[in-house]
Design goal:
Blueprint: E1 14-19, E2 22-26, H1 36-57, H2 61-89, H3 95-117, H4 123-137, H5 140-146
Antiparallel strand pairs: 1-2
Length: 147
């Protein structure tokens, strides 16, 4: 990463140093729900975060941000549909709140896309902060174990 760039770090999105200049997000046990399809899709989100982090090392974060935003829109559509079907099936007691979180995610991605098209040069950092917050605040794994 460029010198002086800092990435949002919290206790659920753990970063590890791959080399002197590169940090990557790592999917770990606190993200796991125990449902393979959902866990695989959550891991795919972590992969997108890592692509964006890597783009800072290659000075192409703006073009990568555009691609990631489009993929996040698609991700939201298929992942949230799969997750919501599963949560209904198991009578997840926090379903309505979780569905509202999904709707807020979609709204935020649309806002970030608009900012990107308006030329926001800090958009990649904003995406990383949003996704870091999203993962940090997601309580699905914890709540499913208590459901």
């Amino acid at each position: 990463m460029r010198k002086g760039y800092s990435f949002y770090v919290n206790n659920k999105l753990r970063l590890f140093r791959l080399s002197k200049n590169m940090n990557f997000a790592k999917f770990n046990h606190v993200h796991k729900t125990g449902v393979k399809q959902i866990d695989d899709e959550h891991e795919h989100l972590i992969d997108m975060i890592n692509e964006l982090i890597l783009s800072f090392n290659h000075d192409n974060e703006i073009s990568t941000a555009q691609e990631i935003l489009s993929r996040l829109e698609n991700y939201a559509n298929y992942h949230f549909e799969n997750e919501e079907k599963y949560l209904k099936k198991v009578n997840y007691k926090h379903f309505e709140e979780h569905k509202e979180d999904h709707n807020n995610f979609r709204i935020k991605i649309k806002d970030l896309k608009k900012r990107h098209s308006n030329g926001d040069q800090g958009i990649a950092h904003k995406i990383l902060n949003f996704l870091g917050d999203w993962i940090h605040n997601c309580q699905l794994a914890d709540n499913l174990s208590q459901n």
